[in-house]
Specification:
This protein is mostly beta strands. It contains three helices and 18 strands. The chain has an 18-stranded antiparallel beta sheet that branches. The protein is globular. The relative contact order is 0.17.
């Protein structure tokens, strides 16, 4: 289930060229619907494991927003790279800074994103660094499409991109029922001039119960964090976990890969009556487990 690694780097250059734009900045964007009234206590997800192996570690600020997301390096068996976030007055992500840790001793800033919320899209202005964050190595501008409820609706575009040696169509598409992601569609179609075409397409269609997803308050207002948390560890393989952006936890999944249905059974083990300890997706060979921090609301 690998994506075509030979052409994968080309996509970033191609997509950057397509999405570069001149936009009006609005630092107060992302007002969105008012947050729900707090309950007596909040369950904050502090760690996510896939099949028992650590994947994400989340650190929160005093407003119960994720201020750091750490990535686990299975080769070195350590939490290594991380991203820090700041938020605007309305609680939507404003900046993201990417750091690399070398043997947990040297911290290196590699990238800084300024995220601007506008009608119909989120614009990311990126500055890239080298030499431990002391030199600027380049700039980039990309955008994600969002709907009227400020939910991520599409990454990429549904137009075929052309280079001298390749044609490429690559996008992720999201559709919702309320605050739950109802369907996720991924398409990666590569047509080289002198090689066979490669096409990978899959679709998730989800159903949900009443158990709340403790990740929802954070991921719904931070598409950068949402894409990190829902992505497979290796971006060139795997299918990811798009349903983690929903208000509720999934109870059933229909999955299709290249037009073929893959049977999936969802089994949930509850930590308490409100939040699950783990979700097993047989057929996909994955179990997602959580660690929580309980915070009493004032």
């Amino acid at each position: 289930m690998k994506r075509p690694s030979l052409f994968y780097p080309c996509y970033f250059l191609l997509l950057a060229g397509i999405l570069i734009c001149s936009c009006r900045k609005n630092d107060d964007g992302g007002s969105g619907p008012a947050p729900e009234p707090p309950e007596d206590s909040s369950y904050l997800v502090t760690a996510i494991r896939i099949n028992g192996l650590p994947k994400d570690s989340l650190v929160y600020n005093e407003r119960q927003q994720v201020k750091e997301r750490w990535d686990y390096n299975p080769s070195y068996r350590m939490w290594q790279n991380y991203v820090t976030f700041t938020y605007n007055a309305n609680g939507y992500v404003k900046t993201a800074r990417y750091y690399h840790e070398n043997d947990n001793t040297t911290k290196s800033l590699s990238q800084q994103d300024s995220i601007i919320w506008e009608t119909g899209r989120v614009i990311t202005y990126t500055t890239k660094y080298r030499e431990y964050g002391t030199e600027i190595s380049g700039y980039d501008t990309t955008s994600l499409q969002i709907n009227g409820d400020l939910q991520l609706s599409m990454s990429g575009i549904k137009d075929t991109a052309y280079l001298d040696f390749i044609k490429w169509l690559l996008y992720d598409e999201f559709s919702y029922t309320g605050n739950d992601l109802q369907q996720f569609h991924y398409l990666n179609h590569v047509i080289p001039n002198r090689a066979p075409a490669v096409k990978r397409e899959y679709t998730f269609t989800m159903q949900y119960g009443q158990q709340r997803n403790a990740l929802y308050p954070q991921l719904s207002r931070n598409p950068v964090l949402a894409r990190l948390v829902t992505a497979y560890r290796n971006p060139e393989e795997g299918i990811g976990y798009p349903y983690l952006v929903s208000l509720h936890h999934i109870t059933a999944v229909t999955y299709q890969l290249n037009g073929q249905a893959v049977p999936v059974t969802v089994n949930t083990k509850m930590k308490n009556e409100r939040y699950p300890e783990s979700i097993q997706l047989s057929g996909l060979g994955e179990e997602i487990s959580y660690r929580y921090k309980v915070v009493k609301n004032k």
